[in-house]
Amino acid sequence: xxxxGIPIIPYIRPDNVNTARHLLKPRxxxxxxxxxxxxxxQHLLWHIGWQFSSALKQRPNWSGFMQQINSSDExxxxxxILMLPLIDLNPSNETCIYxxxxxxxxxxxxxxxxxxxxxxxxxxxxxxxxxxxxMGLKIVCRLGGxxxxxxxxxxxxxxMKGSGLEDVMEICYxxxxxxxxxxxxxxxxxx
Length: 191
Description:
mainly alpha, two-stranded parallel ribbon, 2 strands, flat
C-alpha cells in the first residue's frame, strides 16, 4: 500500500489576491487548447456506414461497431481491481483541491498534455476556480453536468419569472412545488 496516495501540497492563500472578484467569460472567448480524445468522431464514422452498406454487407449496430474498432487487448480484464491514488483529506478542504490539481497537472505533463481538464461539482468547482486563478495553474476546470443543468434551469426560471410560466407549471405540479422547479433545485421534476 506504500506510495498509493497523492502527495499533499499545503495550500496557503496569497494575501495580495482579491478572491471576491471572479470573472466568467463566454466559452467562445476562452483561448484554451482543448484536448479531445482521438476517437471523438467514431459516431460519425458509424453513421457514414449507411452509405456503404448493402444487402450482402450489413452495417453493424452501435454495439457491434464499437466491438470491431476496440477489439485490441489493451483493456484490463473485468476481474482486475486496481488501487487508485487517494487523498486522505476532506474533499472541500482547499489543500485537498490544490493537491488534486497539482497531481493532475503532473500526470498530464507525463502524457505531454499541455493544459489538462478536470470536472468538479459546483461547491468544489467554485473553490477550484479561485485556487487556479490565485496560483496561476495551467488547468481547465469545468462544472459537472448535474450542476451545470441545475444552473441552466435556474437561469431560465430567473429570466422567465413573472411571465406566466409558474401558472402553466401549476397545472401539472402543485403550487408549493413550482418555486423549487424553476430554481433548478428539483431537477428530476424539472426535466
